[in-house]
Design a protein that fits this description.
- It is a single chain.
- The protein is an alpha/beta fold and 163 residues long.
- The chain has helices at residues 2-6, 8-11, 19-28, 32-38, 58-61, 68-74, 98-101, 103-118, 130-140, 149-158; strands at residues 50-54, 80-84, 124-126, 146-147.
- Strands 2-1-3-4 form a 4-stranded parallel beta sheet.
- The chain is flat.
């Protein structure tokens, strides 16, 4: 969704009625990780003693160029170990509706992503895209929790286990 919103200026560049408004709007669109990475933590963080496998969400990494910010946000959590999985930025097979219109290749990507996750021996998986959360969860079964980075930060602030 954020990727599409950030493209409004380009998508409406030829529309004389909406071009300027679309450009102004698109310039304001930011992912939560971009905002949180720029701000110093305002709430104390409690330790989260866990090893998280980080999957780069395609909508952030490829469409928006947001790669470091989710990791920077997670680094504000004491004692949290974040590891990149092999082929971290490879699509998990969700890709919007890709898993619905191309189920066989999406299934293969999902299985491959789950194998790469398991290879890091994590306590949980973290990714910033709801589609990725569902796809990766499906292929991991009940083996590991799959979380959004904000869920981990929230748990750290509240002093509870994220899962």
């Amino acid at each position: 969704m954020g990727s599409s919103l950030k493209e409004y200026g380009r998508l409406l560049a030829d529309d004389p009625d909406y071009r300027e408004r679309a450009e102004a709007f698109a310039a304001k669109v930011r992912d939560i990780s971009e905002l949180l990475a720029e701000l110093p933590p305002s709430a104390p963080r409690h330790p989260v003693r866990a090893r998280l496998a980080h999957h780069e969400a395609c909508h952030l990494a490829h469409a928006q160029g947001v790669r470091e910010q989710p990791r920077a946000v997670l680094r504000t959590v004491p004692e949290l170990e974040v590891v990149d999985i092999p082929e971290s930025d490879m699509c998990c097979g969700s890709a919007g509706v890709y898993n619905l219109i191309q189920p066989e290749p999406a299934e293969e990507l999902g299985r491959r992503k789950a194998e790469n996750v398991r290879s890091t021996s994590p306590d949980a998986v973290v990714t910033a895209n709801p589609g990725c959360l569902l796809q990766i969860s499906r292929h991991l079964g009940k083996q590991l929790p799959v979380l959004h980075p904000v869920q981990v930060v929230d748990a750290s602030i509240r002093g509870v286990r994220p899962w």
